[in-house]
Design a protein that fits this description.
This protein is mainly alpha-helical. The protein folds into 2 domains: about 80 residues, no CATH class; about 45 residues, no CATH class. It is built from 6 helices and 2 strands, in the order H-H-H-H-H-E-E-H. A two-stranded antiparallel sheet has the order 1-2. A hairpin with a 2-residue loop joins strand 1 and strand 2. The longest helix is centred in the middle third of the chain and has 25 residues. It is globular, with a radius of gyration of 21 Å. About 0% of the residues are buried.
Amino acid sequence: MEGNYYTYSMTWPHFIRCVWPSSWPVMTIELNIRDLDYDHFITKAPTGNFLSNFAYFRRCVMSYNLALIFKTFVLSDEWSKAKTSTLRKKLINVSGRLVNRSGKMVMRLIGGFPYIEVLISVKERLVWLYRRLNPVPV
């Protein structure tokens, strides 16, 4: 009780599940459409040419599917629920420099980068996946 008002905190998805349980699949689809609209710009046709718009739409769908595969199979559980824009802002668009050190490409990041452990785990999972898909013959 704060003053004369009773405060109750409930998150929006929990509220939808409790009040309208039959509409939860519809709300999930709406969240996916919002992700496609805001992060992949899929709802606006860029030109008046049908084939150009078709190619643009296919590229948007392919990039969305790659983002879903990346979130599902490469990222950890806490990052797999993040929106595409969050991944782009926090993990992909990072300040750094690629440096050639003795014929090996090394990525140098800014000091104190907060998500360095996530990038290291992504690298380890990608290397494991590559070795799993391309085994060395014995």
